Amino acid sequence: MAPSRRMQKQGIPEPLDESIFVKKRKIGQSEEDIKSKKQKTGGKSAVVPAAKNVNGKAKNSAGQRKTSGTFSEKSVTKKTTGKKAKTIPQPAVEDDEDDLSALEDVNGSDDGEVSDGVGGLDFLASSDDEVLEDDEFIDSDDPDVQKAMWSEDEDASDAEEMLNAANIEGLSGRLDAEAAQQEEDAQAELEDAALQTNIAADISKDPNQSLIAPDLQMVRNRITETTRVLTSFSSLAEDGKSRADYINQLLDDICTYYGYSRFLADKLWHLFPPQEALAFFDANETPRPLVIRTNTLRTHRRELAHSLINRGVTLEPVGKWSKVGLQVFESQVPLGATPEYLAGHYILQAASSFLPVMALAPQEGERCLDMAAAPGGKTTHMAALMKNTGCIFANDSNKDRAKALIGNIHRLGVKNTIVTNYSALEYPRVMGGFDRILLDAPCSGTGVIAKDASVKTNKTEADFLRLPHLQKQLLLAAVDSVDHASKSGGYIVYSTCSVTVEENEQVVQYVLNTRPNVKLVETGLVFGKEGFTSYMGKKFHPSMKQTRRYYPHAYNVDGFFVAKFKKTGPTPLNSVKAQGQSKQSNNNSNGASESTVVDKTPIATNDASKEEDDFGGFDDKEDQSYIEKARDKQLKRKGINPKAKKPPGVKTKQKDAKSSKK
Ligand SMILES: C[S@@+](CC[C@H](N)C(=O)[O-])C[C@H]1O[C@@H](n2cnc3c(N)ncnc32)[C@H](O)[C@@H]1O
């Protein structure tokens, strides 16, 4: 049986296996069964009581959901099936100075219903949703905290040994359970296989059949069958039934079975080939693994792992692609209240949230901006990569969320960060000249439906107009705030936790169209699917391939999008003027080969003609030079070259003044 996704590895995947997604909802479980199970805290195989977060609240749905099994169960499954859960070679991306690979085999998976041991934790949400209010901050100057700083070049094998020793007791205890579980798993796997290969026959054999809500089971079967037909339409379709008929039926069934609005089901379904779309919808029904990010400003991953293992936490490195992430499988303690947590040795952060910061790759000594920073998962990661040097401006327009940001900054011992509370649209006016900018934009959250099921029904067409519009404006503001002449940088990373094209490729394309002084560059991330270069009749610039898409069903991470830009020169005035036109002229090298959707609303904060008006209307000769200087200064601050060629028909005030005198 496929292990629960909470227990599966994240990152570079095994090939898509239908068995993983065909049966996410258990046979015999209705929607109500699942809901009521989520609310239970007991249950036959609950290992530990649901823990509370630091605020004593237990609210996140993912956290309340029981996951199942113990680590040993995973290894049993491996033996039984003969499949290796982790055989995909992963390219080494970062130094392996704290390689914890020895831990990788100690954790197992499940097939039943066992508490994850951290149920009810607020922080099971991604960092994007994390609003932990933590009043108890440990000052990084505290000598105890200083003791917790670890040498970066400590021998990796020593660490593995220590960690293995620490795990050994737990491992031997689990062997008995493994044996007992083995038979059950084998049987369950047989049933799973039958479900996929012969639905009709399987239903009659299912021991839980009496518990099946008949209509739901029927809908599920029809979804599977329709998907199969759509995959080989010419050979499997019934005579007289069109593809559109099948798709309509399928979308209706998806809405019934998974609870999506028809609008969103339609939008998401079209992102994938039929079979993969089904995998995506199924993956949204199960929570992603709980992950913590080691705060390297306070400690080292192996030391943190050792401390947490000693507290009864079972964990392993999140994957070779990250040297700071730990995936937690089971915990005897609430992870939001351990001494290590309170001392800022780690932050609860979804694995996908690491990716934009890894792509940004801020360097020591740089001046960086995190435009939409609260609650600070990514800001604090940036600070750690910069080793608390240079300067980060962490901005968020929401004051309450900015408080959580400040809390995390203190708890994690970040000392190079200034928090601001502007709409990031205003940033080019506030200040510019940044080496690197992260825009982790507000979005619809279609990548995190497993965490927030309300997205299934509460997003409307209006949201998919309003949000992309804001995202485009924010991204333009990011471009205009970065220093193209930065010696080490000049980069902008744009990310969302949404998978829709409107919020991702279309936003990027809009910015390529309106800012010829930026280009897409490689993100440097070792996994992720390429961004779309065409989608439903729209064509995007070929460099869109360099953007990266992440899906729950493909990588067992939240749905995410990451694009990295390099600013190559100052923003020419004519491109600012052109902003707002529906189609770019042919001399725009970034333009797509066909027209793309372009936001027609210019961004007010960057409207150069408005600036000229602001400084216009003075005839006095003496004032004129001051006005010109001020105008040039302001343009420079925005990264716009004041000497850049003006678009035809745009005259400076000085020239206008001269000509009016003639
Ligand atoms: C996806 S969350 C950011 C998560 C954050 N980067 C992290 O890793 O913890 C988006 C944030 O954008 C903020 N936001 C929305 N509109 C904004 C604006 N116009 N300017 C700045 N921040 C904005 C929201 O308050 C929210 O905190």
Automatic annotation (TrEMBL):
Residues 623-633, 653-662 have a biased composition (Basic and acidic residues). Residues 93-114, 610-622 have a biased composition (Acidic residues). GO terms for cellular component: nucleolus. GO terms for molecular function: RNA binding; rRNA (cytosine-C5-)-methyltransferase activity. GO terms for biological process: maturation of LSU-rRNA; rRNA base methylation. Residues 634-648 have a biased composition (Basic residues). It is found in: Nucleus, Nucleolus. Residues 577-593 have a biased composition (Low complexity). Residues 1-123, 572-662 are annotated as: Disordered. Keywords: Methyltransferase, Nucleus, Ribosome biogenesis, RNA-binding, S-adenosyl-L-methionine, Transferase. It holds the Pfam family Methyltr_RsmB-F. NCBIfam families: nop2p (TIGR00446). Belongs to the class I-like SAM-binding methyltransferase superfamily. RsmB/NOP family. PANTHER family: 28S RRNA (CYTOSINE(4447)-C(5))-METHYLTRANSFERASE-RELATED, NOP2 YEAST -RELATED NOL1/NOP2/FMU SUN DOMAIN-CONTAINING. This is Nucleolar protein 2. It comes from Myriangium duriaei CBS 260.36.
